[in-house]
Structures are given as C-alpha cells and as structure tokens.
TrEMBL record:
Entry keywords, A to Z: Acyltransferase, Lipid A biosynthesis, Lipid biosynthesis, Lipid metabolism, Transferase
A single BP term in Gene Ontology: lipid A biosynthetic process
Gene3D superfamilies associated with the record: Hexapeptide repeat proteins (2.160.10.10), Udp N-acetylglucosamine O-acyltransferase, C-terminal domain (1.20.1180.10)
Name under which the protein is recorded: Acyl-[acyl-carrier-protein]--UDP-N-acetylglucosamine O-acyltransferase
Enzymatic class: transferase
Length: 259
C-alpha cells in the first residue's frame, strides 16, 4: 500500500505506484505519475505533467515540474518534465517543465542534484551526473553523462556540457564545454583534461593518450579549430577522439576556449 502521510495532498488524476511513500504536507497534482520505489519527503510539490520512473528520492522543499521562468509561457504551451530512475533531488531544488520543445524537460537516470540547484525549461540531462548546490542551468542547456558540476556555477541557455566534464565552483559557462575536460573561470576557460574523472570511469592509458593527442591538435597547435578538425577527420581516430570531433562539429554556441 502507498505510505501517504495524512497531511499530504494527492489530487485526483495523480497515479502513484503502491510502493511510493509521501511525507507530510507534500502536494502531488493531478496528471503526475510516480513509479515504483520512489520516496517523496515532506513539503515537496510535484506539478501536473511530471513523470518519475523508479526509485527516485525527492527531498524536502523540492519543486518538480513548476512553471518555467519564461515570459512567453502560457498554460497551453506547457510541456512535461520526464524523469528516469534512481535520481536524488536534494532539498529545495527547482525543476521547470518544458515550454518550447515537444519533449519538454528530460532528466535521465542515476543523477544527483544537490540542494537548491535550478534546472530551467527544456533542459536535457543524461545519466550519472552530479550537480552541486546553488548551480543554475538556463533554458535549453544540456548535460551528457558522468559530468561533475560544482556548486554556484552558472550555465548559459543552450550551452552543452559533454561527457565526463568537471566544472569548478562559481564558473560562468557561456559556451559548450567539450568532453573529458575541466573548466573554471568567469567566463569559463578549459584548464586541461579531467584526468581524475577519466581514471575513475575506467578510461585506460591508451584512451587517455588518444584524448590528450586530440586536444593537443585542437588547442595547442598553430591551427584554428576548423583546420584542426579537418586534420583530425583525415586521420584514423579512436572512439574517444570521434566523440570529441562530433561534439565540436555539432556546436552552435561555439566551444569554450583554452586558458
């Protein structure tokens, strides 16, 4: 049976798996789906159109699927907030529903969002990312997989964060951050490779060497980015180098430069 505190409000039309628990004074609006094993603590509000997969934990004061911070928003433009499995949403986090993309805001699985971070409308998160307290993502920002984004960082709208990236605290990110790198500063600059993260995530010496060589051509040669990419395309590349090249080629805002 659902473990629902008597002070919680579960509106008609909300669908909760029988294993879900809901703490005191939480509000679950109609049109919400909450999957197996989720724990909703006290004082949480989950807005209509939000879907949570399995085994998510939502801590006190969190708000999921609230109206976006967009001056053009009207209720008929509302898009969903879709959440995967095994995520942690710590105290006071704020996640906006979508407004401009058909699929809305999408959060993958295994992510850990620390207290009071903000994720704006139409953002995309992959899997196993860690986001520090008070970090803010403007609308349409995207984060791939296994990134570590420290506290108080600010991510500009439409920016992309690549796989296995490390972003320092208080960084101001205004352009895309390519895979496997660390960045810091205002505005942010690439400092080097995320060497610790690469080792922790099982990248062997051969893969790390390939990544290092690719960035040496991109950032430390006499070539501009277009010329460096052309050179890299003309040479046999491993999977890691191919991911870096594809990231640069897909950039619309431009890629963060080296310090």
């Amino acid at each position: 049976m659902n473990k629902i505190h008597p002070t919680a409000i579960i509106e008609d039309g909300a669908e909760l798996h029988p294993s879900v628990s809901v703490g005191p004074f939480s509000i679950i609006e109609g049109g919400v789906f909450i999957g197996e094993g989720c724990v909703i603590e006290s004082g949480v509000r989950i807005f209509s159109g939000t879907t949570l997969g399995k085994n998510n934990r939502v801590y006190s004061g969190a708000m999921l699927g609230c109206e976006p911070l967009d001056l053009s928003f009207t209720p008929e433009k509302s898009r969903p907030l879709l959440i995967g499995d095994n995520n942690h949403f710590r105290e006071g986090v704020n996640f906006s529903r979508g407004v401009k993309s058909e699929d809305g805001t999408i959060i993958g699985s295994g992510n850990y969002f620390m207290s009071n971070c903000h994720v704006g409308h139409d953002c995309r998160f992959g899997d196993h990312n860690v986001v520090g307290s008070y970090t803010a993502f403007a609308g349409h920002a995207s984060v791939s997989n296994k990134a570590f984004i420290s506290g108080l960082a600010g991510i500009h709208q439409f920016c992309r964060i690549g796989d296995n990236v490390m972003i320092a605290g208080c960084a101001k990110v205004v352009k895309d951050v390519p895979p496997f790198t660390t960045c810091d500063g205002n505005p942010a600059r690439i400092l080097g490779l995320n060497a610790v993260g690469l080792r922790r995530n099982g990248f062997d010496a051969t893969a790390r060497k390939s990544i290092k060589q690719t960035y040496k051509i991109l950032y430390h040669s006499d070539l501009n980015i277009s010329q460096a990419l052309e050179q890299l395309r003309g040479e046999p590349q491993g999977s890691e180098a191919q991911r870096i090249i594809a990231f640069f080629e897909a950039s619309e805002r431009g890629v963060t430069t080296h310090k």
